[in-house]
Design a protein that fits this description.
This protein is α/β, with parallel strands linked by helices. The protein has five domains: 141 residues, no CATH class; 143 residues, von Willebrand factor, type A domain (Rossmann fold), CATH 3.40.50; 104 residues, Sandwich (Immunoglobulin-like); 233 residues, 3-Layer(aba) Sandwich (Rossmann fold); 122 residues, Immunoglobulin-like. It contains 17 helices and 39 strands.
């Protein structure tokens, strides 16, 4: 009987183990069908986190079941006893297994389209037309949109987002808006797009970041995003187009008819790496009056660098006129109109010499025949006397007398011919009044006698020794006059159509000139390159020295034609300070064209030597230029610049620096600003400039594509870089879909029938025992 019970028990345990194994292995692997989804059922355990936990649970269950079988106590005999013991053992095993959480798992698998996010840079630099075939950078995004339009929506779900100030905006790929964002916040915008957790990310950009974190700072987020596929479409090149801007044109608002008038053209140039020169010309009704060419400044190609050119034009018709200034630089052109009034203006000249030598004699006669010139002449021989009938009866060398003259020609005279008061009056008339002083030494070498006097500073060269001066004139060495490059740029000493000074009769003898004084320049040279005409600005006026005194030789056969042309140009050039302005100082900004908030330095510098500094540092003022053109002292005019939206002023104290004063500040509100003196100097003695403040243009200042930044991002995040939209489209996965699996858990351990089974087994055990009168 015992053997039979053991046999039956082994069969029951074997059947139970086989049933458990079948339940454990009932999980069926599911494979989704192509193009759709699938579903299936499987068996598992909710409370078992590792597979080996099942072995422990089974061991515990079997052990407890075996223990309950062996230690059952008194049992009915026969089949009833085996059934009672089996129900208790199975109930114990079932209870342990229910604690492990048996459950049915329903799995559903669905293929979803890949989520593709296309991020398009909407910053203003994307409008630059430097793509293949001259298309804009933004056009590459449009080409990409056309390629993605044919994508199967069941395989690829595409969303378009803007970058560069528009990071949260959804875009319509069929009508991408024009790129106008004023800044590039690519780093922060990409960081926000990564939070959308796309499967694929395409970035269409030139890589330029002008605000916020850099692109490389986003790489860690891309790496931690998992299987994110990154594709970068690089737009734009590394070429910077040169640009030129006309800041201001400074010229006389009243121009004398037939006279050469200078125009100062102040510009700002970007693209300094270009080797092309800057060409500037002045036009009147389409006719070119003057032209010049200056070298482009060196420096940062992306920065706006200041540049100035000086031209000289002559207008031969009275009345109002509009000059057009045109500046060209490497294909970039800008122009500005300057209204002027052309009027007749007489030139007043005072001639002083010891005796009526040939040069002064013929010059006096030529000027007397010129109806546009008033000439007074005086000789110092045997005491000062008037030479001719024109002019006052006394020597007009007081400060009040000198105010009536534009230029004074001093011949072969020394300090013994003047009083100290007269020399002081000459000095003040030049420095403060803008008088032009022309020195014409002679063979006596009397100019050497000016050493140690007030007049020594008025001579544009170091004074020579008297003996050297005499030998220079008396050696009669032939010298031919050549116009210097400086004179050509300023339009001075123009011999006329088809004529050259060096083809005229040679000049015999000249004052030997070695070094020139500070800021002095040679307007004419001889065949050996030695100066023959020297020009030096001094305060509000200027001084000239003519080394040769026999241009009268040019009269042979032609009369006054060449002598008058030569002298009239020099005299009008010398006397232009009387009619231009009496400014001894120049106030200007560096740079002249900036953006809001950028640093600006205001410079107040002397226009020439001999200008006395103010007792205290002056105070500078910036005034909003919203009232049209500003006028500089003496009738000069500055062409209007863009008006500021509000009228305001900014006071800035200046500090001494070098030979002048400086003041530093951050650029104020956008618009045009006129520079002025608020205190410390007479405004009539200052040639004031202007400042142009632009809205922030960081996007357009340096629009070159930042290819290194995009390459670095691709390397750090495992992405790929493309320059062709077609190549990028071809590199996308053929089937980018991903499988989405959902599982529904149906727990068996907490169901009513699991409880009923457990209770039923225990109830059968209890019923059998009660039927056999067992406890």
């Amino acid at each position: 009987m015992a053997a039979e019970s053991a046999f039956v028990g082994r069969n029951l345990w074997g059947s139970a183990l086989r049933c458990l194994a079948a339940g454990i292995l009932a999980a069926v692997p599911l494979v989704a069908a192509e193009g759709g989804g699938s579903s299936g059922f499987g068996f598992g355990w909710e409370r078992l986190s590792a597979s080996w936990h099942l072995a422990v649970v089974l061991a515990v269950a079997i052990g407890l079941g075996w223990f309950g079988w062996q230690r059952y106590g008194p049992a009915p005999s026969g089949l009833a006893g085996l059934l009672a013991k089996g129900c208790r053992a199975v109930a114990i095993v079932l209870a342990v297994l229910l604690i492990a959480g048996p459950a049915w798992y329903r799995s559903e698998s669905t293929w979803l389209p890949a989520r593709l996010v296309v991020a398009v840079d909407q910053s203003a630099s994307m409008a630059r037309a430097d793509g293949p075939g001259g298309v804009t950078r933004h056009d590459l995004a449009k080409a990409l949109a056309q390629g993605l339009a044919s994508a199967d929506p069941k395989r690829l779900s595409v969303k378009w987002h803007g970058l560069g100030g528009a990071g949260d905006n959804l875009l319509d790929p069929a009508a991408l808006p024009a790129p106008t964002a004023p800044e590039s916040r690519l780093g922060s915008d990409l960081d926000r797009l990564i939070s959308l957790r796309p499967d694929l990310l395409i970035v269409v950009s030139d890589g330029r970041v002008t605000s916020g974190p850099s692109l490389i700072s986003v790489a860690p987020r891309l790496v931690t995003a998992g299987d994110l596929g990154l594709y970068l479409l690089v737009c734009g090149g590394d070429h910077l187009d040169p640009e030129i801007f006309l800041d201001e044109v400074v010229a006389n608002r009243e121009v004398p008819v037939g006279e050469i008038e200078p125009l100062a053209v102040r510009m700002s140039v970007r693209g300094a790496g270009s080797t092309a020169p800057v060409a500037v010309r002045v036009e009147l009704n389409g006719r070119v009056l003057a032209t010049t060419s200056v070298a482009a400044p060196s420096g940062d190609p992306a920065a706006l660098l200041p540049l100035e050119a000086v031209l000289a034009a002559s207008l031969d018709q009275e009345g109002p006129a509009t000059l057009t200034v045109v500046a060209e630089f490497a294909g970039s052109t800008c122009r500005q109109d300057l209204p002027v009034v052309v009027r007749s203006r007489r030139l007043s000249v005072l001639l002083l010499d010891r005796s009526p030598r040939y040069e002064l004699r013929y010059l006096r006669e030529a000027l007397l025949r010129d109806t546009a010139v008033t000439t007074h002449a005086y000789l110092a021989e045997s005491g000062w006397r008037r030479w001719g009938e024109a002019g006052p009866d006394w020597l007009p060398l007081s400060e009040a007398d000198l105010d009536r003259y534009d230029a004074v020609v001093v011949g072969d005279l020394g300090a013994d011919s003047f009083t100290a008061a007269q020399l002081t009056a000459l000095d003040r008339a030049v420095r403060r009044g803008g008088l032009g002083l022309v020195w014409l030494p002679g063979e006596t070498g009397a100019i050497a006698g000016l050493a140690g006097t007030t007049a020594e500073a008025l001579v544009p060269i170091p004074l020579p020794q008297a003996g050297a001066a005499m030998r220079g004139y008396r050696d009669q060495r032939p010298r031919r006059l050549f116009r210097s490059p400086i004179a050509e740029r300023q339009g001075l000493l123009d011999p006329g159509e088809g004529v050259a000074w060096d083809r005229l009769d040679p000049l015999l003898g000249a004052l030997p000139i070695g070094e020139l004084k500070l800021v002095a320049e040679a307007l004419a040279l001889d065949q050996d390159g030695r100066p023959l005409v020297v020009d030096r600005p001094l305060g509000a006026g200027r001084t000239l020295l003519l080394a040769c005194d026999d241009t009268w030789r040019w009269r042979r056969g032609v009369g006054d034609a060449f002598l008058h042309r030569y002298w009239s140009q020099l005299l009008r050039h010398a006397g232009q300070g009387r009619h231009n302005d009496t400014a001894q100082w120049r106030l200007f900004a560096s740079p002249r064209r900036v953006q809001v908030g950028e640093p600006v330095t205001l410079h107040l510098v002397r226009r020439g030597p001999g200008v006395d500094p103010p007792a205290e540092a002056p105070v500078l003022r910036l005034v909003s230029a919203d009232r049209g053109p500003s006028e500089t002292p003496g009738g000069s005019s500055t062409a209007p610049v863009a008006a500021s939206p509000q009228r305001s002023a900014v006071l800035v104290p200046a500090v001494a620096e070098g030979e002048g004063f400086t003041a530093r500040l951050a650029a104020p509100a956008a618009g045009g600003w006129r520079l002025e003196i608020a205190a410390g100097l007479d405004t009539k003695t200052v040639d004031a400039g202007s400042l142009q403040v632009l809205p922030s243009q960081a996007e357009l200042r340096d629009p070159r594509a930042d290819r290194p930044a995009l390459d670095g991002l691709a390397r750090a995040a495992g992405g790929r870089v493309f320059t062709d939209p077609a190549a990028l489209l071809a590199a996308l996965p053929a089937d980018p879909r991903h499988e989405h699996r959902t599982t529904t858990v149906l727990g068996l351990w907490d169901t009513w029938w699991a409880l009923a089974a457990l209770v039923g087994l225990l109830a059968v055990d209890w019923a059998i025992r009660r039927a056999n009168r067992l406890p």
